[in-house]
Specification:
- The protein is an alpha+beta fold.
- The longest helix is centred in the middle third of the chain and has 10 residues.
- The two termini are 20 Å apart.
- Bound molecules: iron/sulfur cluster.
- The site of iron/sulfur cluster has 13 residues, from loops.
């Protein structure tokens, strides 16, 4: 199980393309995700390269997701 800190992809509003909505809500509420979770990033600069990230990744484009 991955533990997601503030500032990491799993708590970022750009994270989650390709992850079922219900699972994404659980990731944001619980700040945890399964070890094999990978999602797309829709930040324009990253989406253009079809970046896929782990919930514990990060980048300077981080923006907090709305509290679920
Ligand atoms: S790569 Fe950056 S912008 Fe994309 S989800 Fe992670 S922190 Fe957010």
């Amino acid at each position: 199980m991955l533990n997601i800190a503030d500032g990491q992809c799993g708590s970022c509003k750009h994270f989650g393309d390709g992850i079922p909505q219900e699972q994404l809500v659980q990731i944001r509420v619980n700040h945890t995700a399964n070890d094999d979770t990978v999602g797309g990033c829709d930040l324009a600069a990253n989406a253009s390269m079809h970046l896929k990230v782990s919930p514990i990744g990060s980048c300077d484009g981080f923006e907090a997701a709305d509290a679920a």
